[in-house]
Amino acid sequence: MAIVNTTDAVFQDTIKEGLVLVDFWAPWCGPCKIIAPILEELSGKVGDAVTIAKVNVDDNPESAGQYGIMSIPTLKIFKDGVDVATYVGVRPLAELEAAVRQHLS
């Protein structure tokens, strides 16, 4: 599945079904720029099994605040709306792929 952008208005709908990896990021964040191509590659590896959603924390402070996002990039994995894992900072592709596959049912 392609990477999708999500907003405060539709965040809960985005995470409510299936496995969703959410990237909390901002355009001015250097590490966020580093992780972007890693997430693109991950999307190619996991296909439709996982939705990858990006939340710009500057434009969507409600979602970031609700989940206590203090540093970016922060990646959260949701399974059917439940927060099951959190990763702060840039992570290698292999680690993210293993984390996602661990939560696939």
Automatic annotation (TrEMBL):
UniProt keyword Disulfide bond, yes or no: yes
SUPFAM superfamilies in the record: Thioredoxin-like
GO terms for biological process, alphabetical: cell redox homeostasis
Site feature Deprotonates C-terminal active site Cys, where: 23
Disulfide bonds: 29-32
Keywords: Disulfide bond, Electron transport, Redox-active center, Transport
Active site as annotated: 29, 32
Domain Thioredoxin: 1-105
Keyword Transport: yes
Annotated positions for site Contributes to redox potential value: 30-31
One function term, GO molecular function aspect: protein-disulfide reductase activity
Annotated Gene Ontology cellular component terms: cytosol
Similarity annotation: Belongs to the thioredoxin family.
Matching NCBIfam families: thioredoxin
Name of this chain's protein: Thioredoxin
